[in-house]
């Protein structure tokens, strides 16, 4: 570990991040380099414009960028950056839930939570119809009419909403996606 | 039976029959119904197994057998090294027919299936090359082989494989182009795929390229475009016909394989040879799979588990292709052809029967992950889309060019260029995946609806019941959405009173409206359904402002003008309405204020319900019409795309906003009427039909009378009254 420790010297909270996120040291270094690349003025943190520049065409790009920032904050530093990216590591199959360790970032639950928060911008713990509509509109807007969008949102809520409160809470969200292979769908292969 | 009758082999599976008449349909079917996305995602793994795996199988089998031969285990047969290699190459290939036959019953999870299946298809390229190369070597004799020949062999592999695929792709695109132009002659559409698919196969054979690869890629390329371009009936026809042909061919192949076995004249039995072949095939298959998978897992996102690897190894079935190739051997050059043929037959029987039959219990015993039953829920589909975008974004942010990046690029390219070229314009509009799911779900709903309705005697009952579902919540939410300003202005208790107050019918209206919106995407069946329904139960559909029947006003100008006027008047009435008058009154007044001066007089009757009854029922539905409705409608109109809450802001600019959107969406017969037009129409309905209502049901709420006071628009059709 000595060599990795020294190579991580430039990385803020390097050791801690290693353990928390499960990234390898080499990968962490690379991400740090990437961070510095994005951080054009070498301020040590990123603003949303830096990230958005990469995501110009993405329909939900602004939401994803928003997910990097804690509510209320305007900047994201390297540890937060890495923590968010840690959600996308492939799930380890042999992680068992023991009360001792905190749940790793790439567990299925955390991944779903991340996805949930993309919809739930006001962080009230539920996806309301308007929020769902907004997402649908962003993704589908050009090809379907407003009415159809409404109907789709309506229907989606009807399907998922089990306690009939006309919004999808996290448990309902998770339940509706239980057959989906989140592993495959929400993992990115991080290259060294 | 045959033997008993004739004492001689009358039927044989000749290679010609097999390769030219029986095999193509099966492969075309597999190509056409190949899950493309899955296939291409796993293409790397598939290719590695197909190419390297097959080569490994061939090499090891041939060498081992030769080794055993040298060691004397097989007695006295005259097979040289090259011939062993040749034999190895023809036994090496996993057979698509057998794999389909077995795996179709077993339902393993899709990744596993596509790996074995894809491998069985793609290894044809290798098989053909190896076979031809070794055949040529055998003909040349051992001495003439030198580096040049080997290099030629390797080059020919690339030519054969890529050439075949390319040829298939070209044919696939050709078919798609053809299907784009067949709008008026739909009856010949199904024929194209069969004819051109077979043509692809034959052309490849003619050019000595890999014909199986050709037909596979033909199917793979054209499926998307065909399914979008063709008429629904044609799609069904193609699907069923393909399945029939494929199944028929498969059955015939296996029957012939069986029959071929009883030909006594060609039987040669060599225990050592046969047993060793079987043994080696199994062993080397497993070894090959394990090695390759270990290698692949290091770069796969989700590794292939050990159990899955076992199934993959066990699924290496040999089948009719091997037999066909064996029969094709040149007898003069290869003296022991009969032995090889017999061994091949036995191996085929062994793998297909034994391994095939025991596959299912094995899968169950090992608890392999089974195929998830695909359930089209909207949330899942939407979420899948979100995931895709998410992954692309994360890859972008973390600065790497990964799978998702390429996939995204391909998708963009495909949408921009290929779709434009190969899809009918109408099909292009309906491309969106989520919307398709939505459409499918609506169709399913309609079907169930009909079934249930008929079951209970009349569709009316169903409507009544289901309409009561959670009206309160719906009402509350919709209401809020529609008029947050009013809610804000008026006292809270008033607002909530409104919420609690509603007669069930009101919320039903909301719900109905939503449900109606859902159904608009369906065909005539559902419209008819609704008609029937509406006709019967007046009470439930008071506000029925059939959006679905409004879609044929082609006169843009008229609509626009109406719209502008409506908007202006509405804004005024809204402003006055905001002044804290009691809610019902307010809204009623609001309704009253809408003069609806100019209802398009030729109110286009919907094509499917042009009778009095319908009009009448419409009257009923619209009249008992309650308060919230026009408001909501009003808001909606102004806010085609924006949040209805921002109505006041919108107003001055909305006439500018909407028309282009209207114009854009309205140029073709659109099954879903834009809410735009609907809004425009509706208040008009109210007025017209209000008077109808009076005559029909005199005793309704006092509020209704208010609706009646405004003078009916002068141009209203008299026949309605």
How far apart, in Å, are the first and last alpha carbons of chain A?
Answer: 18 Å
- The topology string of helices and strands of chain A comes to HHHEHHEHHEHHEHH
What would you call the structural class of chain B? mainly alpha
Overall CATH class of the largest domain in chain A: Mainly Alpha
Q: Please report the first level of CATH classification, the CATH class of the domain at 15-366 in chain B.
A: Mainly Alpha
Helix share bin of chain B: over 70%
Task: Summarize the amount of helix of chain A as a percent range.
Answer: 40-55%
Based on the coordinates given, report the CATH architecture of the domain at 15-366 in chain B: Up-down Bundle
Percentage beta strand of chain B: under 5%
What is the total number of structural domains of chain A? 2
Number of helices of chain A: 11
How are strands sequenced across the largest beta sheet of chain A? 1-2
* Main sheet properties of chain B: none
What is the correct CATH architecture of the largest domain in chain A? Orthogonal Bundle
Radius of gyration of chain A, CA atoms, in whole angstroms: 19 Å
